[in-house]
């Protein structure tokens, strides 16, 4: 993987098992609607037993972003850990079939490939239960320095803070990327994930580890511990204000579109209309994909954010977080590429 | 499984791997568009390598019918063989989660669970490549006599003629069902499947093994070796004309709806309008599901065929051959149940 990349993504390599569920099923199972919760193997088994018929699609927040960016023409690589089993094979196949380079060897020992049991309620909202499995084997050794140096942007999932060794892989990637003069992006992943690692994420932002930050408004409120969305955006606007190294912030707000926050300025971008909200899984991941595909092409921030909004709209209209339509054709239709 | 059933389905237990493909990909791979072809393991591996990102959904023609009928309120059981592996577990889970009884033990030796690589072209047409795997282990021992006796209708897939031992399971089920005074239904499955077993299928129809026959117009033309659809319907109308034991024939004709053929009469039933044809996989299976759910409830043939047309329309509008909407609610909306 020595050829230069636009984007290198580090993330948890997860296969999604998606099932429809009624609201009262979530209550009965004691899961928090709209959140991602970590589950152990027995709990994963039990959830599978009681949930409805499943559709299996490769997922993982960062991997969804990698696929979206590749489909929009960005040269993209992925770093994450699967096990050598059926689901791991499916995950690798799906990445490569969309043109994402992925050459981290699968684990031959230890737990099976990670799976996320996604319960989609009639309103299209998804509730995620993740068994991390093989992801926990991701280590700094899986991060190839030459590859990181070759990538214009290295993008990191906040969820990587969950498997302990992955955190070290994350830190290594930041160091190598910055020593090569490349940008580092982070997605806060989930309001509850922010709740678990709030201090560490703030530290990464404030010590300059992060150049581009992706967050939805709930995650940003969790980061700044405020009930007021405007106060959260204001706090982000002030980050590193006096240091010269501006933070670029992208804040998504569901149907209200997104905000581009930089150098004390906030610009709003509209959401794209959606025919019917079927499953919101991956909307944030695809926003990041679209933005980064635009950004690494040298398109301005606001147009890049429009591209993000377009990619997000596509995955909301069907089950699963991987695009089903030709994103590049769609982007051309809207004159964004 | 001793409680009485409305419907018992015998079929190949298959997991579908569905990918989008362009027309020229089919040409390059040398596969016949619209058909089901059997592939061996190396060919299956190779197809998986070169095809696009896959969505995994439980399938199998007969199993799709079982699920559809159960969702429409019919007490349904399924007989088919999976291996004790991840895909086999997914298949079993999906059947049970929709209320289908399934207690054939998985194979612990021999080939892995069957998979069908389905290539969906931009026109929504599906081309299927099936690796039969564990299905080939289905034997007469898997057919429980008490269960067959308890079922009002035993429904058989024509595809069962492919794995050699399954044919014996099929014959045992016919014998037991008829000795208990129950009806036996058969679907011709596929024009190419009819091409492989034409004489045997005609023999089953003519010796009275089959009471209800499902076929699409292409399969019927293949059965009667004619280019003329009307001639094929006419030939079906004359089957067993003088024997008193009328054959009930259901002939589907895509957007032209279906025909109910019985006792020398032919009645036409319209198709339901479809918003957008996304993937026609399972349309015939769901037609049979709707018809049999109506039939075993004691609804007249024409209304049962309407119910079949409604169920077929639902699966055409999305990827995969298993319903995603609440079929029973849909049927009630249209005052068919």
Automatic annotation (TrEMBL), chains A, B:
<dbReference type="InterPro" id="IPR052700">
    <property type="entry name" value="Carb_kinase_PfkB-like"/>
</dbReference>
<feature type="domain" description="Carbohydrate kinase PfkB">
    <location>
        <begin position="56"/>
        <end position="322"/>
    </location>
</feature>
<keyword id="KW-0418">Kinase</keyword>
<comment type="similarity">
    <text>Belongs to the carbohydrate kinase PfkB family.</text>
</comment>
<dbReference type="InterPro" id="IPR011611">
    <property type="entry name" value="PfkB_dom"/>
</dbReference>
<dbReference type="InterPro" id="IPR029056">
    <property type="entry name" value="Ribokinase-like"/>
</dbReference>
<dbReference type="Pfam" id="PF00294">
    <property type="entry name" value="PfkB"/>
</dbReference>
<keyword id="KW-0808">Transferase</keyword>
<dbReference type="InterPro" id="IPR002173">
    <property type="entry name" value="Carboh/pur_kinase_PfkB_CS"/>
</dbReference>
<protein>
    <submittedName>
        <fullName>PfkB domain protein</fullName>
    </submittedName>
</protein>
<dbReference type="GO" id="GO:0016301">
    <property type="term" value="F:kinase activity"/>
</dbReference>
